[in-house]
Description:
This protein has eleven helices and 21 strands. The chain is globular and about 70 Å long. It folds into two domains: 6-21 and 109-332, Rossmann fold (3-Layer(aba) Sandwich), CATH 3.40.50; 336-438, 2-Layer Sandwich (GMP Synthetase, Chain A, domain 3), CATH 3.30.300.30.
Amino acid sequence: MPTLDPSRRFHPASAPDYVPVEPLRGLQLERLKRTVRRAHDRVPLFRSRCAERGVSPDDLATLEDLARFPFSVGTDLRDAYPFGLLASPMEEVARLHASTGSGGNPTVVAYTRSDLEAWTQALVRCLASCGLGPGEVVHNAFGYGLLTGGLGTHYGAEALGATVIPVSGGNTDRQIAILRDFGVTAICCTPSYFVHVVERARELGADFSRLRTGIFGAEPWSEAMRRRIEADTGIAAFDLYGVSEVAGPGVAVECFARSGLHVLEDHVYPEIVDPASGEVLPDGVEGELVLTTLSRDAMPMIRYRTRDLTAMVPEPCACGRTLRRIRRIARRSDDVLIVRGVSVFPGQVEAAILAVEGTLPHFQIVLRREKGLDEMEVRVEVTPAVFSDQIGSLEALRQKLAQSLEHRLGLRARVSLVGPRTLQRSEGRAQRVLDERKM
Ligand code: DLL
């Protein structure tokens, strides 16, 4: 376990994280009214949806009134491709990002200069919340280019006063040379890629003695994965969450207490809704996270359904921030796999595997249909030491994994142990599922 240094807990840019709740709610309401009005005046899709529901910006008197307004969903952005949701003329748009997603039109996201400034400030606070400040050497391996992760984090780290290395994804051996030679103290990337980097560094005999902070996000990762990363490397690992449609990274982040992620509530307004009925759920109850932007002009998003499942954490945080927290996002409503009628999330499989000693966080779920029945195979990579061990101990490990999976999933899975480095590594998000039932 790393030691979390308390002297690094406060950064001047973090002041908005600590404002008293009442003025914060006032600021949210003021910004929310402005955002809803802007979207209504300038985005025809939002205006027509409001008309269908019989609501207008005048109906927004309290924050709770937002629940009367229509949702937006991922396909809205694809259907409006490329610029149908813009609320600013193109002359005022300073940057465009896009993601290809899974088929169909890409999702395009637009920012004015002031949107970019607000986004940068959000990232400054996120990085400060993980203990970063001036003097830090930040290796940024989130993808640059059209994706939001790279540039979003980059400008935040620069504005924080850190030294930024814009490595982007890929070319792992070069990344390792940089980590070793440039005195890197903090890394930003997906957790699965970091695991891959560490593994490859071991093979090359490289060590990163100055690295002490990892800021990981863009994909779900379990608490078991955090413990494994910290125990293996001695760094402190923090969770950073974001969604491109509402700017990118910087929606929520952990602090030193690491018990939930603080939502940057002056920039986004969070709601948790029942995924089926759309009703707003009370604090502490798990549901789908819905986000409304509060500081974006070019593309205001009203009640965007993220598909990410979480709950609001009602208790105040030990760190003193007044920003409300959400639980870590371990799964999405649309990454559920239905296997013989049982819901299985890849995150549960990861936690079940990491609960067993001698395994690596590399796995793949393969689904097939055999004689009309769903079959789930979980391929788990083992360490070279375990792999070259006696057949008997491999079999014992296989059985332990099968039990751990059955215990957590309520479902029997076939476990196959595969040799070191046989599962494909990803340079961004890990691809965990191969569903041959659909092929
Ligand atoms: O992944 C933005 C980002 C970049 C966030 C770098 C954090 C760090 P999208 O490509 O639009 O944006 O994907 C958003 O990724 O709805 C979640 O399902 C997932 N996700 C992002 N961060 C986390 C996280 C970026 N910390 C989608 N934990 C979201 C779990 C995450 N899931």
